[in-house]
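Figure 2 data, in text form.
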Amino acid sequence: MKKLMLGNEAVARGLFEGGCTFVSSYPGTPSTEITEAVARYKEVYAEWAPNEKVAMESAFGASLAGKRAFCGMKHVGLNVAADPLFTLSYTGVNGGLVIGVADDAGMHSSQNEQDSRHYARAAKIPMLEPADSAEALAFTKLAFTLSEEYDTPVFIKMCTRVSHSQSVVEEGERVESVKPYKKDPAKYIMMPGNAKKRHPVVEERTRRLVAFAEESEINRVENGADRSMGFITSSTSYQYVKEAVGDRYPVLKLGMIWPMPEQKLRDFAAKVEKLYVVEELDGFIESHLNSLGLSPIGKDVFSILGEFSQNTVRENLGLPVPQGTVAEENVPQRPPVMCAGCPHRGLFYVLAKNKITVLGDIGCYTLGAVPPLSALDSTLCMGASVSGLHGFVKAMEGAADGNTVGVIGDSTFMHSGITGLVNIAYNNSNATVIILDNSITGMTGHQQNPTTGLNLKGDPASKIDLEALCRAVGIERVTVVDPYDLAATEKAVKEELASGKPGVIISRRACALLKYVKHPGPIKVDADKCRSCRACMKIGCPAISMQNGKAVIDNTLCTGCGVCTQLCKFGAL
């Protein structure tokens, strides 16, 4: 049966058809929908893990047991999972093990623009790179076959445009594949003596995979009549090349991006006058071609920054660019903001009002950095607010005491904030951590996490008690506040900062967008009482605007949280 599927849904279908029985992931755009989609197949056990390292190690355990397994993450999540990744290359697998990673060229929802292909080369693990949904399904199934045939984990590398675009796939039947577990200490216990013996196995495996890459149809040559130029490309860049130049010129499309073939690349280069490499982000293919003694045209023409497009390719090749409709220059900017009724808004208002230094973290609350709140001083990576706060406070030698906090979401705290809090307690820094508990993983689309009491499929699960957890690691001062109550929130923040001791404030209020959250209804404006002081605008709520000098509230956006009413001294709200 043919269906239209998102690239991520197609990967999920490939997992199902490929006989996968175990999936563990951490949500991260643009990879999230893979795990959400595969959870709908009753034959596949699927879960959200606290972080990517745990997900990968869990998937390894399932593979060790003889089951085909998968773990998925976005590109920065692969950094978190890098520890088990490199040793997994040495141990190899029992049941097939596929690792899904989705890059975010253009940084639509990410803090950096790293290129995950380097991990495949560094860890010496094969990586397949689909260019559309049909390939996403087919390559995922192939990945399990390669994993078991070559005794290796296999990457499926997606990117934002392939993950979130739709194309037609042909659905097939599920195959079952289970291997018996056999105790094999020399293969799976990576103490130095065993690891030394496994390294040559990895190198031999790479040589065999290069031979596969030479012959495999996933690295295909598409001939063109005009050989004045030719293109080596992959993934979404392949789509841009084909749309820009059509079938006129030869194209070598790489479906396996690591390891790459050698002779196939040399043969292709020999038959074109000018050899172009079109690839987003780093010159990964280009570097490999240079190592083969070839001299392609790559990053000296095509940018190392951001996403490409059909017109990017045309422009850099000196080809005519079709003229489309251009928006008027006076179209207003629409920067992202926290939603109307967001529970984080009140807390950030209090922190900004009191001119407190705030080390931030990864989540929708990072939007507290934008005007008018402008409340954050840093955002690095998951969990860095807590660990960074400790280092900042210690290094300032008392100068930061009483005016510095770290903020972290409930899901992010479970991901990698706990160990930072252990460090604060163990090494006794005068650090105040604020956990923004909105009862969901908000930024990636409302996924459950260990603090919500539900699992991936919505079934009841163990619910972490944040207060008890914080006390258990050695934090004696733990306070819970409702961020909709500005006075109480400000009082708690001031008291904690004045305590001179490590402390945690849990700012607890469910995300306003959750379906089960009931709202009292929109706030009303008494225009006669409004003095046009604009105090209500200081919180940056998208439901509030000024018209004809008076505050106006959009009834379709306002949730009635009441934060703005606490700012109005004239009772107009």
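Caption note: The chain has a mean pLDDT of 95.
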